[in-house]
């Protein structure tokens, strides 16, 4: 799914009007109908809960007025409040006229704001994608009032005060919505941790914007949902053999962190790899042989950490990092690996910390390497903290372009940057995955998929991120979020990959 900017959303509106020969008021009616359908499925019967709709001067306010009319038609008695406006939009004015006289409409007076009972439902239709500057004056006072009311707030399209695709200044007020109900495609703002307190739970409802326009519009950001991923993993041919899926090498583990290498190894095996060899320090030899007997174990001459790079010839892909430690000798192994490797690399955890501590290694990164930092590791990698989440995304894009690599920023909507700077936001996963070892599982899974020659580097990364999150979602259904441990993810990798595998065409 593409993520359009606010400007592109306006163009999509215009293209839809032209392609379908409809008026903007008709498109607004479509949006209001979709919104009301969503809301009516969740509202108690009329009369049980007071509904307040706050409308701004533009088309977001127009949506609010159309919603008020439709709720009235459904038997509800909303009260509508409008911000005083010198130049309301044409569709605002049209819907203001179409509002039945039985629906009370009052202008907001910032000095005498309506008291809002805590059990009220507030619909925020003040500002959407047309927000052009931070809120001040009456609008700001009203937003603070809504936020302090304790009422449940549902935002139409965007929480008012939030820009669709740019940071807001920290001191400008933004509606703290419990739900945000938007149209057609998700907005970048929904995907960033710094906006979570404003956006609440979000939903995107189809309003059938012109698909040809969306198809032909190039974007910098994508949202990766089930439709994007399902079928991307080719089915295994009847005559596959273990060579088809590659022999991979995993360099991982140090004393006290052999578990990280075990988790990554198990995930790699469940990810469908043909053969797996693990290079671990000698202290981990028996642990690995016992807990992942399917993997071959190459013990390092050193007891506690990896000090020697094995011969790389047999391997189709190489992963390095989980539990690795940051000893000087291990750093030299990483340096040699970067110099010698001519197969896909997956770098995680301490391999990334070593890169951050030794930036001279970065230019050695082979093209199309896949890096999987969490935000702290990413900060070490780029060497400076991000100003905010938007800035971090720009750092991510720049990093991927500069080193021609695939770089994953892990988190709630894990973000993959491709070498061309395009960002892909993953949609699966849950907070239960915020537990030690989940990242090691991801590394193992990505390593298996990078070795699968049938997949492009982009498809391997997208599929791995999506499947990892989905395995987490499946696991959490059984364990609960708090009870989820990283090993649970491994159990679901197989079933999830099966779900996502392409089915042969029917006869
Ligand atoms: N495809 C879709 O998704 C569809 C979208 N639709 C809906 O349209 C919405 C976009 O409507 P929109 O373009 O009229 O913009 P909107 O957000 O109402 O604000 C503009 C008004 O606010 C004003 N204003 C701005 N900033 C301000 C500030 N800080 N403080 C005070 N005023 C400020 C601005 O004034 P100006 O900047 O010109 O001075 C102007 O008057 C979109 O979010 C969705 O709800 C559906 O109807 C159809 C399908
Ligand atoms: N709130 C969340 N929602 C979805 N996924 C999450 C959430 N928190 C963590 N994750 C996922 O869990 C993994 C954690 O990785 P990482 O921080 O490297 O853990 P570790 O180093 O302990 O293995 C990442 O893939 C991340 O995307
Ligand atoms: K709004």
How many structural units, i.e. domains? Answer: 2
Structure class = alpha/beta
The shape, in one word, is: elongated
Strand order of the largest sheet: 1-9-18-17-16-15-14-13-10-11-12
Please state roughly what percent of the residues sit in beta strands, choosing from under 5%, 5-15%, 15-25%, 25-35%, 35-45% or over 45%: 5-15%
Give the overall average pLDDT: 97
Computed Rg: 26 Å
Low-confidence stretches: none
CATH topology of the largest domain, by name, is: UDP-N-acetylmuramoyl-L-alanine:D-glutamate ligase
CATH superfamily name of the largest domain?
Answer: Ribokinase
CATH architecture of the largest domain: 3-Layer(aba) Sandwich
Could you estimate the helical fraction of the residues in percent? 25-40%
The CATH class of the largest domain is identified as: Alpha Beta
Number of distinct beta strands: 18
Bound molecules: ligand NPW, adenosine-5'-diphosphate, potassium ion
Distance between the termini: 30 Å
Number of helices: 17
Task: Give a structural overview.
With 507 residues, this protein is an alpha/beta fold. It has two domains: 2-219, YjeF N-terminal domain (Rossmann fold); 248-500, Ribokinase (UDP-N-acetylmuramoyl-L-alanine:D-glutamate ligase), CATH 3.40.1190. It is 39% helix and 14% strand. The protein is built from 17 helices and 18 strands. It has helices at residues 6-20, 24-40, 59-73, 90-98, 137-148, 196-199, 211-216, 226-229, 258-270, 285-291, 328-340, 349-357, 375-382, 389-402, 438-451, 457-479, 486-500, and strands at 2-3, 51-55, 79-82, 105-107, 121-125, 152-156, 179-183, 201-205, 221-224, 247-251, 275-280, 296-299, 317-320, 345-347, 370-371, 406-409, 415-417, 423-426. The strands form two sheets. Strands 1-9-18-17-16-15-14-13-10-11-12 form an eleven-stranded mixed sheet. Helix 9 packs parallel to helix 17 (486-500). It is elongated, with a radius of gyration of 26 Å. The protein starts with a strand and ends in a 7-residue tail after the last helix. The mean pLDDT is 97. Residues 349, 374, 410-412, 414, 429-431, 433-434, 436-440, 442, 468-469 line the site of adenosine-5'-diphosphate (ADP).
